[in-house]
Amino acid sequence: MIQSNYYNDKTVIFLDGNWVKAKEATTSVFSQTLHYGIGAFEGIRAYQTPSGISLFKAGSHFRRLLHSLEVLSIKIPYTEEELFDITQKLLQKNNLRNAYVRPLVYMNEDMRLTPARKAHVMIAAWEWGQLLGSGELNLTLSTFYRPEKKSLPITAKLIGNYTNGVLASQEARAKGFDEALMFDVQGNIAQAPGANFFLERDGELYTSSSASIMSGITRKVVMEYAKELGVKVHEQAITIDMIHNADSAFLTGTATEVVSVRSIEGEQMKLAWEDSIGSQLAEIYQHRIRNDDYHSMTIV
Ligand code: PMP
C-alpha cells in the first residue's frame, strides 16, 4: 500500500509524452535539477463548476510557465494549448474534479552550470486543501529578504528561487507563527513566501509594487474584483508604518486562495475579518472559482 499525500496505486501522471503510473515514475539522481535547482513549475487549481471542470486562469498559468522556461533558455515541445489539453486529460484519467495541478519542467543529467540540453515535462494533480488553511493567520516579519531582480528573475517560477521562501517559512514556524511576511531589499514589505500581500486602510487596499514580488495571478484577479466593488487599490511601496496602521490584511495565491491575516508580529488587525474588504473579496473569489463558466476548460 502506497503512503503518499500526492498519489495512490492508480494515480497516473503525464511524463514526456506518456501516461505513467505515479508509483512507477523515476528520474536520474544526476538530474541537474536535483543538484542546482534548475527548472520551473506552475501551480494551477481545477474547480468543479455547474458547467464542468474549470482550470482557473489556465492561460495565465501556462503562459507564466513558458515565460519561466524562456528565462532559463529551456525549450519544451508543447504550446500553451497543448499543455491545457494534456491537463484536461490528466484530470479525466485520475477522475479529479477539485484538484491542484503541478506542471514541472526538470532537467536531464548534467553537472555543468549551463542548462542541460534536454528537459523533462511532468504534470501531476492531486486533491489539496488551502495551502495555509482557512485564514486568521499570525504572520511574523522575516529576517530573510526577497531577492531583487538583479539577483534572481523573480517574475519566473523557478525551482531554485524557492529556497528563499522555504527558509522564511521555516523560520516563521519555528517561532510559532503561521507564516512569514518578507521585506524587499529596500526594507519595504514585499509578500509572503508563496503568496501576495494586501492591506486595508481607511476603506482602500494597498499591495506592494516592489520589483521583488512575484506578481501573482490571484493578486491580479483580486484587484479586478476590488475594482468591481469600487474599492481603490494602490500598488505602491508598503512601509512598516503602514503595517502598524492597517485595519485588515490578507494573502492571495493559487494554492492559498484568499485568506485573512489576524496579526503581524503580534499586532492584531483593527477590523474583524467579517467587516473587512478582504472578507468580501474572499467570498467573491470562492463564488467565482466555483460558478463562473467563462473559463471552464477554455484558456483565458
Ligand atoms: N509569490 C510566490 C513566490 C508564489 O510561489 C506564488 C504562488 N504561485 C504567489 C506569489 C502567488 O501567485 P499566484 O496567485 O499566481 O498563484
Characterization of this structure:
The chain folds into 2 domains: 12-126, D-amino Acid Aminotransferase, Chain A, domain 1, CATH 3.30.470; 137-289, D-amino Acid Aminotransferase, Chain A, domain 2, CATH 3.20.10.10. It is 26% helix and 27% strand. The protein has 7 helices and 16 strands. The model has no long low-confidence stretch (mean pLDDT 94). Bound molecules: 4'-deoxy-4'-aminopyridoxal-5'-phosphate. The site of 4'-deoxy-4'-aminopyridoxal-5'-phosphate (PMP) has 14 residues, from helix 5 and strand 14. 4'-deoxy-4'-aminopyridoxal-5'-phosphate binds next to helix 5 and strand 14.
What is the third-level CATH name, the topology of the largest domain? D-amino Acid Aminotransferase, Chain A, domain 2
Shape: globular
Instruction: Tell me the distance between the termini.
Output: 40 Å
Main pleated sheet: 9 strands, mixed
Top keywords for this entry?
single chain, binds 4'-deoxy-4'-aminopyridoxal-5'-phosphate, 9-stranded mixed sheet, D-amino Acid Aminotransferase, Chain A, domain 2, 26% helix, alpha+beta, D-amino Acid Aminotransferase, Chain A, domain 1, globular, 7 helices, 7-stranded antiparallel sheet
Which helices and strands occur, and which strands form pairs?
Elements: E1 12-15, E2 18-21, H1 32-36, E3 39-41, E4 44-49, E5 52-55, H2 58-71, H3 80-93, E6 99-107, E7 119-126, E8 137-141, H4 162-174, E9 179-183, E10 189-191, E11 196-201, E12 204-208, H5 217-229, E13 233-236, H6 240-244, E14 248-253, E15 257-264, E16 267-268, H7 277-291
Parallel strand pairs: 8-9, 8-15, 12-13
Antiparallel strand pairs: 1-2, 1-7, 3-6, 4-5, 4-6, 6-7, 9-10, 11-12, 11-14, 14-15, 15-16
Helix pairs in contact: 2-3, 5-7
The structure holds 4'-deoxy-4'-aminopyridoxal-5'-phosphate.
